[in-house]
Each structure stands twice: as C-alpha cells, then as structure tokens.
Design goal:
Helices cover 45% and strands 15% of the residues. By secondary structure, it is an alpha/beta fold. It comes from Saccharothrix xinjiangensis.
Length: 256
C-alpha cells in the first residue's frame, strides 16, 4: 500500500488534518486529494469534533496542483476537476476550520487557505497566484479567494503572479494573522480555544449565515435574521447558554 500522505488526529475536540507529502511540496496529487477529502468527511461526521485544523509537514504548506500528474492529461482528466469539491467541503463545513501555515502557499494551496474560516501563518510564509505564469487561470480558487481579498489586490496579484508576504496577506484579508514562527502554534491554539467556546449548532448556523447571499430588501433581511435569532434564543443551545450565564457556570458544550 502507498504511504499515507494526509494524517488525521483528534485531541480534545480538535481534529488536525496534516498534509504530509514534503517530497513534492504537498502538491495536490491524486492520492493527497482523496485522503484529504476522506478526512474532511470524517471530521464533519464526528460529533466529538468541534474545530478542524488544516496543517502540514515540511517547509511548504501546499504548492497547488501536482503538475507532474497534470502534464499530458486532457481537460477532462485533470486533477483540478476534483478540487471544487474539496474547497466546498472546507467552505461549507459546519465546524470552523483553521489553516496553519508554517511555510509558503501557491496557487491551489492559496485556495485551501481562503476556504478555511481562519488562517494563521508564520510571518516568513509567502503566497502567490502563480497560475498565469505557467499559462493557466486561477479560476477554481477564485471562488474562495475573491470573497476574502480587497478587489485592487486581487487584480494585481492574480494578474502579475507576484510573490507576497504573510503580513501583506493579512493586510488584504487573505489570512487573519501573521506571527513569528515560534508563536505559530500558540496563535493557532488561541483561535481554537475561542472557537471551542461556541455552541456547535450556533457555530454551524453562523457559518451558514455568513456565506448566504442577502436580499436587497432590508425588510426581508430583518425578517429572515429575526427568525434565525429567535429560533436560536428559544432553542436548546440558547436556553442552556442563558441558564449557564445566569448560574455563572460553563455551558454544557464548553471544554473543561
């Protein structure tokens, strides 16, 4: 059997999915895509999992599609055809997903970062939309990247393919935080600890609310949001949270 390229571990409600194919810079090969998909599905289905962390081994987070596999393949045989389903799993996961980058991300790797809810990078990490420089288009990843980026930055970086730093990635909205490498794990833990304080159903509903399009009719929007708010105030999680607040105790979902 082929050596596993993506590892899965759960500790204290946090599922860590680790890309482990450093020999090809964690490129999105056929095997890596399949294992990543399977682990994302496992995390989604496990009620014990509260938060997902997408991490990596080696110096590179993810270099994008595996160009060795792409060479000589026709359009309908390209691995990129499977990529939208992976990005959609990350984007629509009912559990919050945190990307942890100790090194560079390129092309499809940046799409993975953008699909996560929160992204933390070492300040030495770099990014690039390198597609145009090899004659392809950053089309699939644009679905997750463009909602994150400032429009001017998106035009500049998509068209030039220029490499940019983690601090700039934070400034234009691609990542949440750029920290010294020795603080990376502490920063990831800071976010996962905060996310674990949220009620599972409330987190899932909030993620759905954040990504759904809204009507231009303000009255319709208020009516929809009122229904959502009232339903959760009166629901089991809302009532437990209110009772816990009144009793000055942790709610049932909060970690010990």
């Amino acid at each position: 059997m082929a050596e596993e390229l993506v590892h899965y571990e759960v500790r204290r409600g946090i599922a860590t999915i680790t890309l482990d194919s450093p020999r090809n810079r964690n490129a999105l090969s056929r095997q890596l895509r399949a294992e990543l998909t399977a682990h994302l599905d496992t995390a989604t289905a496990d009620d014990a999992v509260r938060v997902v962390v997408l991490s990596h081994t080696g110096p590179v987070f993810c270099s994008g599609m595996d160009l060795k596999e792409a060479g000589g393949a026709s359009a309908d045989q390209q691995g990129v055809n499977e990529f939208p389903a992976i990005l959609e799993r990350l984007w629509t996961s009912p559990k919050p997903v945190v990307a942890r980058l100790a090194g560079p991300a390129r092309a499809g790797g940046v799409g993975l970062v953008a699909a996560c809810d929160i992204a933390v990078a070492a300040d030495t990490a770099t990014f690039a939309f390198s597609e145009v420089r090899i004659g392809v288009v950053p089309a699939v990843i644009s679905v997750t990247v463009l909602p994150r980026l400032l429009p001017r930055a998106a035009h500049e970086l998509f068209l030039t393919g220029e490499t940019f730093t983690a601090p700039r990635a934070a400034a234009i909205g691609l990542i949440n935080s750029a920290v010294p490498a020795d603080r990376l794990d502490d920063e990831v833990a800071r976010y996962t600890d905060m996310l674990a304080l949220g009620a599972p159903g409330a987190l899932a509903a909030t993620k759905l609310m954040l990504r759904e399009p809204r009507s231009n009719d303000l009255g319709v929007v208020f009516a929809d949001m009122l229904e959502l708010s009232a339903r959760h105030f009166g629901g089991p999680e809302g009532q437990e949270g209110i009772a816990a607040f009144a009793a000055k105790r942790k709610p049932s979902w909060a970690p010990e």
